[in-house]
Design brief:
single chain, alpha/beta, 17 strands, 37% helix, globular
Length: 424
């Protein structure tokens, strides 16, 4: 712990000898400790011989928001003074490690990807990100095949069984909605054959059915976007909710987190709620239905993604209505449309780059590495200039994040897999 504290205080500035001296330990002990920490991913040695904290430490830092009980106080100005804080208690899941998996071979390895569907641009970007990582790791991966379940658990179960029959070395799984636990038998057969399952984006119902879960915090997305909207509206007004796909666990978690925030603002009235299916057409139709029901535009619209958010904005535009503040990112069209129309909005992109991270995790697991059971990809706050609130500040300005040269359906959070496309 002393070594990690020293490296964290002065990242990539200290050599092994300097770290050992500051930690006041013997040289043989110090070098052995740095070697062990490096093998487990807690520290990384740079080309100049200096050390920085490694991927394992960063994953632990971004974990824990899903299961943690949280208390939030909000700041709305002098009459309701109080600093807006998120008091995050540590979740036990933060410290849970995956069970060791014996290396199946020295590699290279064959991977299968059981993908819930490719029903929207984000899901296609998830696959694109995974395929990019496969190309980068081509010396360690000799085969990669993806199968699309069309959001049907029976189809996905049969696809997992096919991967087992083909004797792949590891399976990436983005689970379909599975209320009847159809996938359990297929995942049990993976365990019996010693094939590790790396869940990504959506995990199966049974926690014993996977080795590692690669994800981002749905609670953070739902909660912080709701805080931004509530503070933008000064805690007063009518709000419409447009969550994503009914029965999909990320949509449910985001919606629950958002409602917990809105409940703390008695001046906010949740006037309507419609699931949108995470599609532009779904967002467009949801807004039209709510307009028909209520007769006038609300003060704000909460969407858990820009996949439907862009449809909502365009519906207000088609109806020649005032466009209220929106939440929801993920897709380039949301950023382009909202910036062009000067609509206040807040985005917490659900990073499609987790596809690439899942491939990397699969390789690490096959090598026999010890990993956290939950690996989280960071979620940045993306806001246009002038729309920050007391609690929500921009990690990235939307004006710098948008890609005016790329199509509306481009998912910007897929990371390095966007390389090779036209530069801004």
């Amino acid at each position: 712990m002393d070594v990690l504290r020293i490296i964290g205080a002065q990242p990539a500035r200290l050599t092994a000898s300097e770290i050992i001296q500051q930690a006041r330990m013997g040289r043989s002990t110090g070098f052995a400790l740095l070697k062990a920490l490096g093998e487990r991913g807690y520290v990384t040695k740079q080309g100049d011989g200096c050390y920085r904290l490694g991927e394992t430490v960063r994953n632990m830092a971004f974990s824990s928001t899903e299961a943690a009980p949280q208390q939030v106080s909000f700041g709305l100005g002098s009459k309701q003074a109080g600093q807006a804080l998120a008091d995050m208690e540590l979740s036990a899941e933060l410290f849970e490690l995956a069970d060791p998996t014996p290396a199946r071979s020295l590699g290279p390895w064959r991977l299968g990807f059981a993908n819930a569907s490719s029903s929207n641009p984000w899901r296609k970007a998830l696959l694109n990100s995974a395929e990019h990582a496969v190309r980068v790791l081509d010396r360690q991966i000799c085969g990669f095949q993806s199968r699309d379940a069309g959001d049907d658990p029976l189809t996905q179960a049969s696809q997992i069984d096919a991967f087992v029959q083909e004797n792949v070395d590891a399976i990436l799984l983005s689970a379909t909605p599975d209320p009847d636990n159809v996938l359990a038998g297929s995942l049990m057969r993976c365990q019996e054959q010693g094939i590790p399952v790396i869940a990504v984006d959506r995990r199966p119902n049974d926690r014993s059915g996977y080795a590692v879960f690669v994800t981002a915090s749905d609670e953070l997305i739902g909660k912080f976007s709701a805080i931004w909207l509530a503070e933008t509206l000064q805690g007063q007004g009518r709000v419409w909710l447009q969550p994503g796909l009914d029965q999909a666990s990320p949509a449910r978690r985001r919606l629950t987190a958002a409602k917990m925030v809105f409940a703390r603002f008695p001046g906010l009235n949740i006037e309507g709620e419609r699931f949108s299916g995470w599609t532009e057409d779904g967002g467009f139709q949801a807004t039209q239905d709510l307009m028909l029901q209520h007769g006038q535009a609300p003060d704000g619209v909460w969407c858990d993604s820009g996949l439907q958010g862009v449809g909502s904005i365009r519906a207000f535009q088609a109806l020649s209505e005032r466009i209220p503040p929106h939440t929801g990112g993920d897709i380039n069209g949301m950023f382009r449309t909202a910036l062009k129309l000067k609509v206040p909005f807040c985005a917490f992109d659900y990073p499609a780059a987790m596809g690439a991270r899942a491939v990397e995790v699969a390789v690490e697991v096959l090598k026999g590495a010890t990993l956290p059971r939950r690996v989280e990809v960071p979620v940045p706050a993306i806001l246009p200039r002038g729309t920050e609130t007391r609690s929500i500040k921009a990690d990235i300005l939307a004006e710098h994040y948008v890609r005016w040269d790329l199509p509306d359906d481009t998912v910007l959070s897929q990371g390095l897999s966007l390389r090779g496309r036209p530069a801004r």
